[in-house]
Write a structure and sequence with these properties.
By secondary structure, the chain is of the alpha+beta class. Helices cover 36% and strands 27% of the residues.
Amino acid sequence: MQQFTYTIKDRDGIHARPAGVLIKAAKSYKSKISIEAHGKTADLKGGIFALMGLGIRCGWDVTITIEGEDEHIAAVELKEVFESTI
């Protein structure tokens, strides 16, 4: 299992555009990938409504958990996606 925490920097939080980018990136891996914020968890591959339903805002810390055969590379690359997107 790989895990990292990221603080949302986009002033609008996770809205439609970054949510779409994150979901597309997550779907390129075989591992199970989840995102947790303020006690709520969603499958990052589960679709835009699941992710946006968390209501993640600027300044919130989110925890990404990755479990599976490509978890190491997925963790590194997803962290880069978070840093470049939100």
